[in-house]
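May I ask for a protein sequence together with how it folds?
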Amino acid sequence: MKVFLSADMEGTCGIVSWPETERSTPFDYAPMQKQMTREVAAACRGAFSAGADEVVVKDAHDTARNLDPAGLPRGIKIIRSWSGDLLSMMSGLDQDKYDAVFFTGYHAWASCPGNPLSHTMNLRNDHVTLNGVLCSEFLINAYTAGWCGVPVALVTGDKALCEFAKTLIPAITTVPVNEGRGGCTLSIHPDEAVERIEAAAKEAAAKADQCQVPMPDHFHMEIDFVKHSMAYSKSFYPGASLKDGKYVCYDTDDWYEMLRFCHFVLSDG
């Protein structure tokens, strides 16, 4: 069994402020970097306990140089920094055959009160919708897993995202570690988070075949940009359209083409 793990940071246990997510503010960042690494390590251990032969970890936050590789168990491989390919936070998933995808440290979508750091890819949009659903990075990356034919078996992060994940994939195993309340979070103890994640990962790996991602036949994305001037500029992407001065819209039946749109319009600076 081979597992692909995509690790974000804003859903790490206890996290609550942007400086805690940024390498440029080491006093705030270091404790959360350590906890992020501990949570990923726990998910890896759980997968190995369930019989996984290998776990490939994609550091998928900001610089993609957050995890301490020495803090992860032997038997993993890790993808650090960004290749620049269209799969972004899932980079590498299409390069080999995997049996399950895990997400750790994931967070709620832009405009969601479930996490004070909620956003979708960046802070340049007020919200993103995909087929009429408020769109998180989890939703984008889950569809990428589905496009690759790999089940999404585990997600850890804030309560709001974990609850949404269950609506998309009912059999998915979730570990909510934080709950947003306005500008603060209510979190469980970091050690308890690590223990729960390891146990959940073991459970998730064992029932991964029940966690296939339901793929729509058609995809319609709308990005509500904060600045109308950026929306105008991005609306020139081939096939895109501008709505109400701030929304850039795109339709396709091909998920890979939606990833291309996201790469140049949603994710690109």
